[in-house]
Amino acid sequence: IDPLYTRGSNINIERSNLSTMEKGVPVELTRGSANWARVVEEIVKLEKKTFPKHESLAQTFDGELRKRNAGLLYVSSDGETLGYVMYAWPSSLSASITKLAVKESCRRQGHGEALLRAAIDKCRSRKDNTSVPRASNSSYLKPLPPEPHDRGATIDIPLDSEKVSSISSPFFPFNVCSKSGFCLKDLRAKEMELQAKENELNRKEQELKRREDAIAKTGVVIEEKNWPDFFPLIHHDIPNEIPIHLQKIQYVAFTTLLGLVGCLLWNIVAVTVAWIKGGGPTIWLMSIIYFIAGVPGAYVLWYRPLYRASRTDSALKFGTFFVFYVFHIAFCGFAAVAPPVIFQGKSLTGFLPALELLTTNAAVGILYFIGAGFFCIETLLNIWVIQQVYAYFRGSGKAAQMKREAATSTLMRAL
């Protein structure tokens, strides 16, 4: 007969339980014992305080204890219940821990571990139909550090541990699984897999760093695209890469590059309006070609050489900049005037086509005048930039260096 449901209690058993409770050792709650009502009342209070309302068994606690395949162990000290564990054995092959709680003030003192050990022993003894030896003080171990837990999950404890692949643990010589089917064995395998991936990533990171260091030693600079921020197209970092005495010139040169973009965009707008007003599609197509060829061409042919020349102080890069920047200034000056050379000059918003269009369509003429003003401002800024760069080029001795390099190159070819 299960002692949990025995109505009559032996006086010696009750005295033994009382002496055990005073020592804070897990004991089984026996129905009909002298302390039944008090212990149940304290456990119900602890249940309400520990678990959320939707997980609490406080309302049906008495019914849970009446089940034939359930039991309860509790720990008390000086007449006060410190914690309890509820367990069940739904079949002869497995058992489960349904509830485990310890008073907040009594946690991290080994009570929870002692309750869990005693419940496991009880579950195993149910299979063997043997009595459960009462736990002693020697069963206490040092309290384990707190671990996160799922209050709604139960732990399935296989009673036939020899039929289940076990994990190496000094406390649980069997595989502990939750109702979701996730086992500690699976957790360990997943941990080992993640560790292997982490080691592989560390190895690749070290290899990449080694290659970057090797490239840096050869003097090759890796230019990472970082401008504009929302869609990086070019590498641009004036504050960190350009010497401070050249930063102003570089900023103004970058402004002229952006100014060229603005001028050509406005040129497209004005020419599009002129086309709508009867100017023909040819001038619009030419304005598109100016933009598509002019913007990337300006960056590659003169802005990037100037940027690299300022960063590395290369005379050759300065020379490349001067050659193509002169053509850039000439184009901007030509666009500001727009003589009737290419398609009557109306593919560019210069002063001459603006004056002509004012007589036929004032709105289009005003758009062309604004575009001509933009090209004039762009031309003036370009002249200032080339003057400043040339002054630095001559003052730093780069002109003489460039002549020496040219002479050396000619001599080497002659030999």
From TrEMBL:
Bias kind Polar residues: ranges: 130-140
Region (Disordered): 127-148
Stretches that traverse the bilayer: 251-276, 282-302, 322-342, 362-386
SUPFAM superfamilies xref list: Acyl-CoA N-acyltransferases (Nat)
Topology with respect to the bilayer: Multi-pass membrane protein
Domain N-acetyltransferase: 27-204
One cellular component (GO) term of this entry: plasma membrane
One Pfam family matching this protein: SCAMP
Sections of the chain in a coiled coil: 184-214
Signal peptide annotation: none
GO molecular function terms listed in the Swiss-Prot or TrEMBL record: acyltransferase activity, transferring groups other than amino-acyl groups
Main location (coarse class): membrane
Keyword Transmembrane helix: yes
GO BP annotations, alphabetical order: protein transport
Keywords recorded for this protein, A-Z: Cell membrane, Coiled coil, Cytoplasmic vesicle, Membrane, Transmembrane, Transmembrane helix, Transport
UniProt subcellular location: Cell membrane; Cytoplasmic vesicle, Secretory vesicle membrane
Function text: Probably involved in membrane trafficking.
Family classification: Belongs to the SCAMP family.
Name recorded for this polypeptide: Secretory carrier-associated membrane protein
Organism: Brassica campestris (Field mustard)
